[in-house]
């Protein structure tokens, strides 16, 4: 249809939905301990070894003892982004709040990046991840006996974690290694893997919850109490600024949407988490 036929009288259709990919439902933030921070650096005293008691006899000289303290540090890093949207897009999308959608997308992107840095963050320009702490030996690890993920490996990993952390311990595993775990059976052909007992609950392996984390390299996995072992420090919630007064926005009829998120993360108690490495 041409303009002469009245074609321009028919406005373009704008559908009241946006096609986009879904995000992972699980968040590492829910697995670790989250604490508020009022400053950019927080020092956390940690007890390396506590005082010991000894039996003594009447009128005997008592033995002395010591306690050793260390210090874990949470350092805040800034995560930020700016997106420009044309004023026409915002005005024409009368069935969708484009600005609100963009803010939601930013929040989802921040969640994905938090998940990544809690797992593999380098600790220099971003929070320290579990894999970085393992390389630094803050988290101790054992090596796979054969390179092929086996039930013996999982048992060795379980028993490398002190018993006091077992009640809240979970496996953190890449999807490809979950596939291998699901195949492991006992001598009677029964699978060690158990499906969730209720909707919203995780599957279990040998009685412990399994959390899928695809930011992990396939060569390693973790087992531990992450709320005891890892702290995520919030220096404030995601802040959003919307402006049409930047040079780019003003000259091109655009709206600038800027988000800033400041967060810290580190392993504060390495003994509460153990790793398994050398998985082929």
Task: Walk me through what this model shows.
The protein is 22% helix and 29% strand. The chain is of the alpha+beta class and 280 residues long. The chain has one domain (28-41, 75-277): 2-Layer Sandwich (hypothetical protein PF0899 fold), CATH 3.30.2320. The strands form three sheets. It has a seven-stranded mixed beta sheet. Strands 1, 4, 11, 12 and 13 form a five-stranded mixed beta sheet that branches. A two-stranded antiparallel ribbon has the order 2-3. A hairpin with a 2-residue loop joins strand 8 (204-205) and strand 9 (208-212). It is flat and about 85 Å long.
Task: Write a short abstract of this structure.
It contains seven helices and 14 strands.
CATH homology superfamily name = hypothetical protein PF0899 domain
The rounded distance between the terminal residues' Cα atoms is 61 Å
CATH architecture: 2-Layer Sandwich
Number of discrete helical segments: 7
Largest sheet: 7 strands, mixed
Oligomeric description of these chains:
single chain
Average predicted confidence as pLDDT: 87
> How much helix, percentage-wise, in residues?
10-25%
Q: Pairing-aware structural class of the strands and helices?
A: alpha+beta
Order of helices and strands: EEEEHHHEHEHEEEEHEEHEE
CATH topology: hypothetical protein PF0899 fold
Quantity of strands, as a count: 14
Radius of gyration: 26 Å
Low-pLDDT runs of 5+ residues are 5-11
The shape is flat
